[in-house]
Amino acid sequence: MSAADRASWLGQIQRDRARRLELDIAETDLRRRRPQGDLQIDEDNQEEYREPPPEVKPLIDMFPGVSAALLTRIFERKLKATELIRLKEKSVTDLDQEDRVFKMTESGGAVGFKKTAPSLKDWGPNPQIWTGCFLTYLAAIGYLFGDKYPKAVPNMLMFMRQILDFAQTYHWSEAVLPLALNFHQYILDKGELSTDSYLVTAQFREKYLRHNLTLPAKSPPHSPAARPRQARRARSSNNETECTVCGLGDHGASSCRKKK
Predict the structure, then answer these.
(1) What is the spatial distance between Cα 16 and Cα 8, in angstroms, rounded to a whole number?
(2) Region Disordered: which residues (predicted)?
(3) Other C-beta atoms within 10 Å of 81: how many?
């Protein structure tokens, strides 16, 4: 290696070191100035890489697309009702694209953080997403705590049935979904696995299921039995001949072959 090449190589190494040092300083400064909300997000990032407890490891293969960190939160009784949407099964690519946001540092680097909690719009216009996530939650609860709390899953199933019944009468996004999430969190705070009943109380129903949030009344379906009579009336109005023996409209009763 010539002296010029060696000098160029050493210069590149020094520039790379300076660049890495600059990025480290920028990231440290970003962490120092980060709001408290982002600090919580960083704790969640650390939780993703924590070794799951032995009780949780069998569930990882049972629920593909659901992270071990979420299953661990269920096991540790830390999962909030609004976090149920994170139980929606996704591919690894979808999780990486949808659940992370990247913030640029002043030096041009990027630091990845998890997104904040989803809004009600992320749950969709009907109970489909909530139901799927809640069933996954029930399956995990049953596996982890079914022996110790045998009433937990049946009680939660009755709660889910009640929520789906409400969705037949009231708007999902504006009434039933907020009720489901808030009442579920209320039970979580009390200790949902040992509660005797998961049914929504009158206080919560009155707060969320208001009259102005009811769905429009559905018109009754037409009876199939009325169609032949309507068709016969239509033929009669068009002065068509209808056989009273076989019901066909191309001949009269006197010439009906079925009569013979």
Answers:
(1) 12
(2) 32-56, 214-242
(3) 19
Answering whether pTM is above 0.70, one says no
* CB 259, CB 245: distance < 8 Å: yes
Whether residue 77 sits in one domain with residue 20: no
Domain count along the chain = 3
How many other C-beta atoms lie within 10 A of the C-beta of residue 122? Answer: 12
Token reading at 53: 């407890």
**Beta-carbon contacts of residue 140 (< 8 Å; ≥ 6 apart):** 59, 63, 71, 74
CA dihedral 28, 30, 32, 37 (to 10 degrees): -130
- Same domain (yes/no): 121, 202: yes
Same domain, 119 and 173: yes
pLDDT digits (tens, 9 = 90+) for 76-116: 999 999 999 998 865 443 444 445 554 555 555 555 555 55
**What is residue 167's predicted lDDT score, i.e. its pLDDT?**
97
Pick from 83-87, 177-181, 228-232: least confident? 228-232
